[in-house]
Every structure is written in C-alpha cells, then in structure tokens.
Amino acid sequence: MQIPKTYRESRAVQYPEPVSIIIVKDEKGCYNPMSASWVTFTSIEPRMLVVSIGFQRHTYELMKNQTEFVVSFPSAEMSSEVEFFGSNSGRDIDKLKALGSATQPATVIDGVLLKEAAVNYECRITDQLKTGDHMIFSAEIIASHVHQDELPRIYMLGPGLFGGV
Ligand SMILES: Cc1cc2nc3c(=O)[nH]c(=O)nc-3n(C[C@H](O)[C@H](O)[C@H](O)COP(=O)(O)O)c2cc1C
C-alpha cells in the first residue's frame, strides 16, 4: 500500500544514489571538478549520457562555453573529493589544487582524468535541454578509462554519507 508523502520525504528513501564528478576547463586553463548525482547513460550506439547542472553552479557557466568535459565515477575511498567538490565553488577556489587530487591528461579531449577514480569518461557535448532550475547537457562518450585495480565506485548512502556498496 502506498502512503502519500512530500517529495522531500520520498527522496530520502532513494538512497543509495550514484555520485560522479564532472570536470570542465575554465577560462584560466584550470580544470574545475563538481560533484554530480544527476548523471545518466542514455544511448548505446552512439555511447551517450546526460548530466544535469544547476544554473547557480560555476560549472554551468563553464559548460555554456565548452564543447567537452570529463565525467569521473569516484572510487569508494574518494568521499573527501565528493564532499569537497560538492560544497565549494570553482568561482572561489582551485578545487583540484586545494585537495591535491591526482590527475592525468585525457587522451582525446582537452581535459583531465581523476587518477584514483573507478572510471573516467571523456565526453563531447551534443545538446542542451532546460529543465526547471537545471540544464541537461547531453554528450557523446568518446573515450573510456578504468582504474587498473578495478576499484569499486562510491555512492551517496544518505545525506552527507558516502561509501561503497
Ligand atoms: C553528492 C552530491 C551530488 C550533487 N549532484 C549535483 C548535480 O547532479 N547537479 C548539480 O547541479 N549540482 C549537484 N551538486 C551540487 C554541486 O556539486 C555544488 O553546488 C558545487 O559546489 C558546485 O560547484 P561549482 O560552483 O564549482 O560548479 C551535488 C553535490 C553533492 C555533494
């Protein structure tokens, strides 16, 4: 039997939720990482995904002027990155430098991969769709990378709680 609840209450039972980190180049040539849960695969051929970015985010400003970005799926040990990249803005701070996160160059696009992540995808933007207070960017995945040790991914297990499942 279903019981009426507020939308906020219904969201609370949807954990664990996947988490990714979107990395976009800024106007100074730095790479800005932002934690993002709203990332979904949408097509097999061509390989495609969508990311949903709030209009308030620095990442949104950057995505408007970029054609490429990286989606990184952090490993279970990367809760510090997820929390830090998801609670600080690239407007105020160079987040990768502040945390000393290890990166390696992307192979096709002008971007960086998170070295200790489980998976990294290099993506090229194909389209945009406004949905309320977020913009959905669709993108083709043009290169895929997996950690040599095949690390497990991190998930959001509850508000402010992260770990592997
Ligand atoms: C676990 C987690 C998931 C998040 N998912 C999203 C998301 O899907 N879309 C979004 O716009 N913001 C999301 N955020 C919020 C942004 O990561 C946060 O506002 C960040 O500070 C924006 O950084 P920026 O200003 O450098 O772009 C999430 C935050 C956390 C901690």
Mind explaining what this structure looks like?
With 165 residues, this protein is α+β, with helices and mostly antiparallel strands. The protein has a single domain, classed as Roll (Pnp Oxidase, Chain A), CATH 2.30.110. The protein is built from 4 helices and 12 strands. The strands form 3 sheets. Strands 3-2-6-9-10-5-4 form a 7-stranded antiparallel sheet. The protein has a 3-stranded antiparallel sheet with strand order 1-11-12, with no helix packed on it. Strand 7 and strand 8 form a beta hairpin. The chain is globular and about 50 Å long. The chain starts with 6 loop residues before the first helix and ends with a strand. The model has no long low-confidence stretch (mean pLDDT 96). Bound molecules: flavin mononucleotide. Flavin mononucleotide (FMN) binds next to strand 3, strand 5 and helix 2. The site of flavin mononucleotide has 22 residues, from strand 3, strand 5 and helix 2.
The average pLDDT is 96
Q: Helical segment tally?
A: 4
Task: Note the gap between the termini.
Answer: 28 Å
**Care to count the β-strands?**
12
The percentage helix is 10-25%
Examine the coordinates and then state which fold CATH places here, giving the name of the CATH topology.
Pnp Oxidase, Chain A
The CATH H-level superfamily is Electron Transport, Fmn-binding Protein, Chain A
Poorly predicted regions are none
Characterize the main sheet: 7 strands, antiparallel
| CATH class descriptor | Mainly Beta
Radius of gyration: 16 Å
Query: How many domains in all?
Result: 1
Class by SSE composition: alpha+beta
Strand line-up of the largest beta sheet: 3-2-6-9-10-5-4
By CATH, the architecture is named Roll
Helix/strand order? HEEEEEHEHHEEEEEE
Task: Quote the beta fraction.
Answer: 35-45%
Bound molecules: flavin mononucleotide
